[in-house]
């Protein structure tokens, strides 16, 4: 079987790390609202891939998280005069209901970020000990992007181009504007947990890296998600995992067939001709791999 690795932009022969077994992770939703049809399409796409692997005789272990603590959830809760936990529970249940109605198989493991704080703190501590992360004076902890020589490989970006082109928030607590938050210090009224750096909550990119490692191990065979997650989310996940555990996560160039898959709408011929030549300022779509 050959599958399209969105990190290398190539079709590659798929060979699982362990013969006959596939460990697969797909980033789940942030549960602050009902999902829309585009979200559902992503999850249905990966369900088809999972079912195909199972039908082909692979023993597939499939994990998918629920991001149940996040700025959007807190904002929605404040707007509605509810707690963040109430909002997250409502939309977690609705998401699961919609997936079952669409005949998408339940994941083998469905970890929730708020139940995985301990493994995330452990990973952040490891990254600090190894010089890949630092605690700022304000209680945040940041990943030092330039400490990872492979940063940019997953999404095909050059670190210096990021400085020029990316919309990076100015933040005087960071050593480098490129650095991203692993742990966010608590603000008044926000859900928080104790940590070695004070009360706070994990950054979004931190949860998937820690959950993959806990439930599937590192490396895994297939990491999936919507194409909009390739940068920064998948890039940052990969940076944490490879730096913390010195294993491909998967990483392009890995001699084993570790693969990043992203679900995206396949442009029709007419859409292709309309979009590609005319929008030179936007990123051209790579050739369809279907
Ligand atoms: Zn993720």
Largest sheet: 4 strands, parallel
Care to count the β-strands? Answer: 10
| Rg (CA only) | 19 Å
Identify the CATH architecture: 3-Layer(aba) Sandwich
Look up the CATH topology: Rossmann fold
The helix content, as a percent range, equals: 25-40%
> Which small-molecule species are bound to the chains here?
zinc ion
Classify the beta-strand content into a percent band: 15-25%
| Structural class based on helices, strands and sheet pairing | alpha/beta
- Poorly predicted runs: 251-257, 265-290
N- to C-terminal distance = 13 Å
- CATH H-tier superfamily: HUPs
What features would you describe in this structure?
This protein is of the alpha/beta class. It has one domain (21-265): HUPs (Rossmann fold), CATH 3.40.50. Helices cover 35% and strands 15% of the residues. It has eight helices and ten strands. The strands form three sheets. A four-stranded parallel sheet has the order 4-3-9-10, covered by helices on one side. It has a four-stranded antiparallel sheet with strand order 5-6-7-8. Strands 1-2 form a two-stranded antiparallel sheet. β5 and β6 (141-143) form a beta hairpin. The protein is globular and about 50 Å long. Zinc ion (ZN) is lined by residues 27, 208, 225, 233, 237.
